[in-house]
Amino acid sequence: MIQAPKGTHDIYGEDMRLWRYVEDEIRNITDAYGYTEIRTPAFEHTELFLRGVGDTTDIVQKEMYTFEDKGGRSLSLRPEQTAGVARTYVERGLHNQPQPTKLFYIGPNFRYEKPQHGRYRQHHQFGVEVFGAYSPATEAEVLSLGYTLINKLNVENVLLHVNSIGCTDCRPVYHQRLKEYIGDRLEKFCSTCRERFNKNPLRILDCKVDNCQALLTDAPMVLDALDEECRTHFEELQLLLTNMNIPFIVDPKVVRGLDYYTRTVFEFIAPGFTVLGGGRYDGLIAQVGGQATGGVGFGMGIERLILQLKEQASIPAVETGPTIFIGSADPEGARQSHQLAYILRQASIKAESDLLGRSVKAQMKYANKIQASYTTILGCSELEENAAMIKNMQTGDQTKVSFEELAAFLK
Ligand code: ATP
Ligand code: MG
């Protein structure tokens, strides 16, 4: 038997209902916030991710599915979607539209990672991107959108952590301070941290190895190295969040894994993992070939959000069964049942008929299993009368209804 590739999932049945519930809420909220949907290709030129995600990141160095196509081009399955959306912004000239450009996406990403709880080789993200805005109100809007979603879905135990990692002016100052602090202790850090020391020391703060974290206890903080403008920006954001009553903590350990962040970075963190991560990336659009443009966005892992929902006691009840099961007692009745189901479905009523030629008893058993709200059985006498007894499965009440009036009766 051929099995699904390691680190992938089939989503169906009950799970699919939960996915729909989450996706419907995403669409409601993004609509209220004025974000329109974008779908970019699942693969792009590898070069885009080298530039847009950064060639020193784990994602690009270790996790990307890269291949050569039959035309000899180097392509990669997208490990994230921000780079693709940024490419669209530049290539399709979206900066010519009224600014800011506010977009959202839902779709799969691919990363060659060691599969574990909440970590897969194909995962799905809901994400938003705002381009063309530099104000801290932009981060506040994007964060309030993420917060509203998590709240509306009743996801518990998730808290917003925010931080600022400064800009291209003040970050080098911090890098220097951090390198001085680490200094001759560098040998005690893990090999990944030692590599990061010269390429991007900030990301040492992000290391998940306990020993490295212990060595960093008294490390200097990015927040203490911010220049005046970066500090004002971060303070204004905190004021806006406070005014909106959005709970958050300032967490200097949040630095995010990607090279393109400037100033604000944030994560919504649950006990086992980060559900949503993002920030400001004013350098990104230039990085992929456009004019310098302000940008803010986040990516939220849908699998992780759903894992979190499932761990809770109350998973939202979703309606399941059809409105009516139309069974039949003979071939004539069966023909009529299929036609009637067709008419009801055109009126958007959920109707089922028997496709297996089962006995009446077996049909009723099936109707019970699929939780039909009403049932009926058609035979010659029903056809003659052009009406049938409709049974309410909850109360057991039976009502005689003509075929013409059935849709109105069920609505
Ligand atoms: P982590 O530190 O957990 O590896 P990340 O920083 O690599 O996360 P991002 O690239 O910021 O994650 O992706 C945004 C969100 O997408 C994450 O917060 C998470 O919810 C989800 N995500 C990322 N990688 C995976 C994965 N391999 N499997 C499932 N969800 C993922
Ligand atoms: Mg990762």
Structural features, described:
The chain is of the alpha+beta class and 411 residues long. The chain is built from 15 helices and 16 strands. The protein has helices at residues 13-33, 46-54, 58-63, 82-91, 136-152, 171-182, 191-199, 210-215, 228-243, 284-287, 302-311, 331-346, 360-369, 380-385, 406-410; strands spanning 36-37, 43-45, 66-68, 74-77, 101-110, 122-131, 159-164, 248-250, 264-269, 274-280, 295-301, 324-328, 351-353, 374-378, 387-392, 398-402. The strands form 3 sheets. The chain has an 8-stranded mixed beta sheet with strand order 1-5-6-11-10-9-7-8, with helices on both faces. Helix 2 (46-54) packs across helix 4 and helix 5 packs parallel to helix 9 (228-243). It is elongated, with a radius of gyration of 28 Å. The mean pLDDT is 94. The chain starts with 12 loop residues before the first helix and ends with a helix. 37% of the residues are buried. The protein binds adenosine-5'-triphosphate and magnesium ion.
Provide a compact summary of the structure.
The chain is an alpha+beta fold and 411 residues long.
Q: Name every ligand kind in the structure.
A: adenosine-5'-triphosphate, magnesium ion
Average per-residue pLDDT, rounded, comes to 94
Main sheet attributes: strand count, strand direction, barrel closure: 8 strands, mixed
- State the share of residues found in helices, binned by percent: 25-40%
Structural class: alpha+beta
* Helix count from the secondary structure assignment: 15
How are the strands ordered across the major sheet?
1-5-6-11-10-9-7-8
Beta-strand percentage? 15-25%
Overall body shape: elongated
Beta-strand segment tally: 16
| End-to-end C-alpha gap | 46 Å
Low-confidence stretches: none
Radius of gyration: 28 Å
